[in-house]
Amino acid sequence: MLTLDGLSKTYKTGDTALSDVTLSVPKGQIIGLIGPSGAGKSTLIRCINRLVEPTSGKIMLGDVNLASLGKSDLRQQRRRIGMIFQEYALVERLTVMENVLSGRLGYVPFWRSFLRRFPATDIQRAYQLLDRVGLMEHADKRADALSGGQRQRVGIARALAQGPELLLVDEPTASLDPKTSRQIMRLLTEICSERGLPAIVNIHDVPLAQQFMQRIVGLRAGRVVFDGPPDMLTREALTTIYGEEDWNAMRQGDEEQAEAEAEARGRLAVLAQ
Amino acid sequence: MTEITTYKQVWSYRTPRGRLLAWAGWLALVALFVWCWQIMTERTIWAFVQDAPRQAADIGSRMLPPRWPYLSELWAPLWDTLNIATLGTIGGVFMAVPVAFLAARNTTPSVAILRPIALFIIVASRSINSLIWALLLVAIIGPGLLAGIIAISLRSIGFIGKLLYEAIEETDTKQIEAVSATGATGLQVLNYGIVPQIMPAFWGITVFRWDINIRESTILGLVGAGGLGLKLQGSLNTLAWSQVSVILLLILATVVVSEWISAKVRHALI
Amino acid sequence: MQIGVVVYLFLALGTVDVNWARVYAGLERGQRFVMGFLQPDFTSRWRDISQGLSESLTMTLTSTVVGVAISIPIGIGAARNLAPRWVYYICRSIIAVSRALQEIIIAIFFVAMFGFGPFAGFLTLSFATIGFIAKLLADDIEEIDESQAEAIRATGASWWQVVNYAVQPQVMPRLIGLSVYRLDINFRESAVIGIVGAGGIGATLNTAIDRYEYDSAGAILLIIIAVVMVTEYGSSYLRKFLQ
Asked: Which PROSITE patterns match (chain A) (predicted)?
């Protein structure tokens, strides 16, 4: 589905954020991107939809090379890629519904978006998505009236409103508490498997990544140093990714998270009935 | 999850009431604008307006090139302008300080009588532009630098007074209590408890006002209060546009330099 | 330093050449002015005053509306994060010119070009409004939360849609506040530019002082102070209401 070929990025300051990243994401697979801060995780994700311009390399989404597109073609292609952000990046002063509908901006002409006259199918889809993420009754609230977890759900709905073929997820849980983090991760993975959506998820929390991801890619100093299923993520593998740090410290609080997880699972079971 | 539910296909980002209010608001603004426009242009002579581009071209061609030798006649008025601004600022400070202490809630001797008077002085001074003060003063005491200096002072009272009394009201009460606890008299409390706290703000405000006063004093001469404006008025009256452009460039340079100085000084103070 | 100050004061005061006889003669006039201020005469020149006041008020409103309307595109153009380099420099220079020239000087030129009357005043105030609003708007846009704009851009939105969805919601409340504040400033300025022939209450005041009608002048000044106070309180109330 997505193939990165020799992707490199060197910033104007001379810092090399990515060097020669080659990666292939098949349909329906959820990849966790882990690595120490400054390893280039965020740059990698932003290079794919060219919020950051890559220096060299190919980005093939289907059979389109995103790296070589002009401005208007890029806009067309961006619609195919949904993005979810760390600090939610909702437009705080707009309503939840407007935020979700903003996922349709690439499909509607300016006058429609300006007058907030979206096509009926878009509105229907937006309501459906709000219902899916459990925020139906909040549709007309302003985004800044919501809690962190709710905001991230709006962020997910916005990305899905695009009808994406790929999800880019940048630290979705970094500003959330452990319990909400798990709920959000669960929602994300469920949605991806429902729709057969491939996703690349930046994540700093190794246990969380191991629990939810089908495949882990470890990034260190802009290079891929690990690529495999979560159970291959051994102590040695983590050392190559994170260096000699006490990465075990990251596992602390695991118990508390497990409890939260169990509770969340219980709730979901109730909801599913 | 099987999807049997059907979802609404209609959504509007405002309630019907909200939409009506928004429309009414815009309509009212447009109507008000049109109405005001009608009144304002009632007596406009449109032939003059149509003629404006030609006039502009004419003036432009007369302004260029600037008559640079005229610059030598401008140094004395420039010196006058600087003096008006500086002496005016000093005068303004002397008048504004007592007013500020009377207006600040924590230092005023009488909340019921003196404070409202002080506040009125501040508002009156702020609402009336220095040019209007100058106009009055020239009529009263005759043209010249003195009218300009007093106009600038009177205008500065409101600005300095307002900012200063806000600074006084924001002073830390603990320090004041500490000084009064030593058994100091009211004036001593003022001197030891409040004055040291507002000193940086005071200098900042004064320099800031000086900068504004330089700007304002360059044009006071238009109504006869001395300085560069006097030369401007003279050149305008004789339609010597090439001199006007020299004066304007000098004014611009003065303003830029004074802004730079005031920024430097304020930076040094902080 | 202190010596320098003393020397400067000495020199500066030396240049203030005061004709004390004239000042003394003026004191009587000053007294008349104070009396006029205390016993203002609203009635005998009421026609002129109401004419000037209505010119000032209408000029204030129209110039604020037009000025703000022009400021919005210029302000967007002067925001580094939205505009291409060349547009940025053009818009920033327009702002710089508008801010560098004082209202009164602009008014002199517009009066020379468009003739006496409130139309020149309207143009002056509109021009001055551009420098004020466009600069503050541009600075505001440069300080927006970029992540919101990034998120909207990532959906494939066009430039106009990014402005409408990500920028406008963030800067709108302050833009409204600034416009109301500018309305207030424009009224004060409208009282001044009349002195050089740009209509409004300033022209009426100028005439009254030229005729030595201090009681009418006092009335006009009191009206100006009153309107300024009303607009100041009104605008702070309106801004609170709109937040």
From this structure: ABC_TRANSPORTER_1, ABC_TRANSPORTER_2
